[in-house]
Amino acid sequence: xxxxxxxxxxxxxxxxxxxxxxxxxxxxxxxxxxxxxxxxxxxxxxxxxxxxxxxxxxxxxxxxxxxxxxxxxxxxxxxxxxxxxxxxxxxxxxxxxxxxxxxxxxxxxxxxxxxxxxxxxxxxxxxxxxxxxxxxxxxxxxxxxxxxxxxxxxxxxxxxxxxxxxxxxxxxxxxxxxxxxxxxxxxxxxxxxxxxxxxxxxxxxxxxxxxxxxxxxxxxxxxxxxxxxxxxxxxxxxxxxxxxx
Length: 245
What we know:
Layout: H1 4-7, H2 9-12, H3 15-18, H4 23-31, E1 42-46, H5 52-59, E2 63-68, H6 71-77, E3 87-90, E4 102-107, H7 118-131, E5 132-143, E6 155-161, E7 164-176, E8 179-187, E9 192-200, H8 204-213, E10 220-222, E11 237-243
Parallel strand pairs: 1-2, 1-4, 2-3, 4-5
Antiparallel strand pairs: 5-11, 6-7, 7-8, 8-9, 10-11
């Protein structure tokens, strides 16, 4: 089940205030190329959230299918300027099935890290492989587990919404067996909502092993959105690109 900050409509309305357009969005948008009215790409966005990237792809004329398990996130996504051009599907990445094949499959926003069990990872990779068109590419990212994330994970931010201020407080709880537990506290003027979350921090070799077991091979691993190669000592990101046949 999605965490509370994905499935609660009040919290979904806040999501882009703290997760708006940034360098990772530019990176993923560039993968599709510019306006493509003559030959639009078929794009599958797994874990699309509130649809920020899917909407941007659609604005360039690409044919986009965007998938997310949280209805509240999709409700926000459908109201995007190009929302009517996108095929929105409520489903997990593991269970999604379509007759379509896609030129580009993305999983952004560190959505890969909510896949906590091997079965979920392998099922997601199976979805990607099944739906990848010949010559297409899969691209997704996850955080580098060698970084001491507990020192990056405590944060407070004020989010303006409909004339009020909601304070979001992120609290690290524990890191055990490559799993981080944390809470997000949302302080509204009249109440506090708490969303408990867990993320998986797999090392590069473990991810590559699971890709290989799924019949997929890594083309490249980048360490940042500017295209720098991955460096296990300093890179915060691991950005995987996987080609089709």
